Amino acid sequence: QVQLVESGGGLVQAGGSLRLSCVASGRSFVGVDIRWFRQAPGKEREFVASISWTKITTNYAPSVKGRFTISRDNAKDTVYLQMNSLKPEDTAVYYCNAITDWGQGTQVTVSA
User: Fold this and answer.
1) Fewer Cβ within 10 Å of end Cβ, the chain: N or C?
2) Are strands 78-83 and 68-73 parallel, antiparallel or unpaired?
3) What is the pLDDT of residues 28-69, one digit of tens each?
Protein backbone atom coordinates (compact mmCIF):
# COMPACT_ATOMS: atom_id res chain seq x y z
CA GLN A 1 0.00 0.00 0.00
CA VAL A 2 1.20 3.48 -0.78
CA GLN A 3 0.47 6.54 1.30
CA LEU A 4 -0.38 9.64 -0.70
CA VAL A 5 -0.16 13.14 0.69
CA GLU A 6 -1.56 16.09 -1.23
CA SER A 7 -0.59 19.70 -0.61
CA GLY A 8 -0.73 23.09 -2.25
CA GLY A 9 -4.39 23.89 -1.92
CA GLY A 10 -5.66 27.22 -0.69
CA LEU A 11 -7.81 30.25 -1.39
CA VAL A 12 -7.27 32.09 -4.64
CA GLN A 13 -9.17 34.65 -6.68
CA ALA A 14 -10.70 33.77 -10.01
CA GLY A 15 -8.06 33.88 -12.71
CA GLY A 16 -5.33 32.90 -10.31
CA SER A 17 -3.12 29.83 -10.15
CA LEU A 18 -2.22 27.06 -7.74
CA ARG A 19 0.08 24.07 -7.97
CA LEU A 20 -0.92 20.92 -6.15
CA SER A 21 1.55 18.21 -5.20
CA CYS A 22 1.03 14.55 -4.41
CA VAL A 23 3.88 12.72 -2.71
CA ALA A 24 4.03 8.96 -2.26
CA SER A 25 5.51 7.15 0.69
CA GLY A 26 5.56 3.54 1.79
CA ARG A 27 5.89 2.31 -1.76
CA SER A 28 7.14 3.95 -4.90
CA PHE A 29 5.02 5.19 -7.79
CA VAL A 30 7.09 2.94 -10.08
CA GLY A 31 5.02 1.78 -13.03
CA VAL A 32 1.83 3.37 -11.71
CA ASP A 33 -0.42 5.80 -13.52
CA ILE A 34 -1.57 8.62 -11.27
CA ARG A 35 -4.88 10.45 -11.35
CA TRP A 36 -6.27 13.61 -9.81
CA PHE A 37 -9.93 13.74 -8.85
CA ARG A 38 -11.98 16.44 -7.17
CA GLN A 39 -15.17 16.59 -5.17
CA ALA A 40 -17.23 19.71 -4.68
CA PRO A 41 -19.79 19.99 -1.86
CA GLY A 42 -22.91 18.02 -2.65
CA LYS A 43 -21.41 16.54 -5.80
CA GLU A 44 -19.84 13.23 -6.74
CA ARG A 45 -16.11 12.84 -7.04
CA GLU A 46 -15.01 13.51 -10.61
CA PHE A 47 -11.94 12.81 -12.70
CA VAL A 48 -9.65 15.77 -13.36
CA ALA A 49 -6.45 14.51 -14.97
CA SER A 50 -4.14 11.52 -15.28
CA ILE A 51 -0.57 10.81 -16.25
CA SER A 52 1.14 7.56 -17.16
CA TRP A 53 4.30 6.29 -15.48
CA THR A 54 6.25 7.08 -18.67
CA LYS A 55 4.78 10.61 -18.77
CA ILE A 56 3.90 9.96 -22.40
CA THR A 57 0.15 9.87 -21.90
CA THR A 58 -1.89 12.52 -20.15
CA ASN A 59 -5.64 12.94 -20.06
CA TYR A 60 -7.84 15.78 -18.88
CA ALA A 61 -11.47 16.36 -18.13
CA PRO A 62 -12.98 18.71 -20.72
CA SER A 63 -13.71 21.26 -18.01
CA VAL A 64 -10.01 21.72 -17.20
CA LYS A 65 -8.31 21.03 -20.51
CA GLY A 66 -6.13 23.94 -21.54
CA ARG A 67 -6.03 25.35 -18.01
CA PHE A 68 -4.58 22.50 -15.93
CA THR A 69 -1.34 20.61 -16.51
CA ILE A 70 -0.40 17.33 -14.86
CA SER A 71 3.24 16.33 -14.53
CA ARG A 72 5.40 14.03 -12.46
CA ASP A 73 8.90 13.68 -11.09
CA ASN A 74 9.46 9.96 -10.75
CA ALA A 75 12.75 10.43 -8.94
CA LYS A 76 10.83 12.24 -6.19
CA ASP A 77 7.70 10.07 -6.32
CA THR A 78 5.75 13.27 -6.80
CA VAL A 79 2.94 14.24 -9.14
CA TYR A 80 1.92 17.84 -9.72
CA LEU A 81 -1.22 19.55 -10.93
CA GLN A 82 -0.62 23.07 -12.18
CA MET A 83 -3.92 24.92 -12.22
CA ASN A 84 -4.16 28.21 -14.12
CA SER A 85 -7.06 30.51 -14.94
CA LEU A 86 -8.97 29.14 -11.99
CA LYS A 87 -12.73 29.56 -11.85
CA PRO A 88 -15.14 29.47 -8.90
CA GLU A 89 -16.47 26.16 -10.24
CA ASP A 90 -13.02 24.64 -9.67
CA THR A 91 -13.66 24.90 -5.93
CA ALA A 92 -13.41 21.39 -4.48
CA VAL A 93 -11.31 19.01 -2.47
CA TYR A 94 -8.66 17.60 -4.79
CA TYR A 95 -7.52 14.01 -4.34
CA CYS A 96 -4.58 12.06 -5.67
CA ASN A 97 -5.20 8.46 -6.71
CA ALA A 98 -2.86 5.54 -7.43
CA ILE A 99 -4.73 2.34 -8.33
CA THR A 100 -6.81 1.82 -5.17
CA ASP A 101 -4.93 4.21 -2.89
CA TRP A 102 -6.18 7.73 -2.16
CA GLY A 103 -4.78 10.72 -0.37
CA GLN A 104 -6.64 12.75 2.23
CA GLY A 105 -7.28 15.59 -0.18
CA THR A 106 -6.41 19.27 -0.29
CA GLN A 107 -8.99 22.05 -0.37
CA VAL A 108 -9.02 24.48 -3.29
CA THR A 109 -11.30 27.49 -3.01
CA VAL A 110 -11.67 29.98 -5.84
CA SER A 111 -13.42 33.24 -5.04
CA ALA A 112 -15.30 35.22 -7.67
Assistant:
1) C
2) antiparallel
3) 778 889 999 999 999 999 999 999 999 899 999 999 999 999
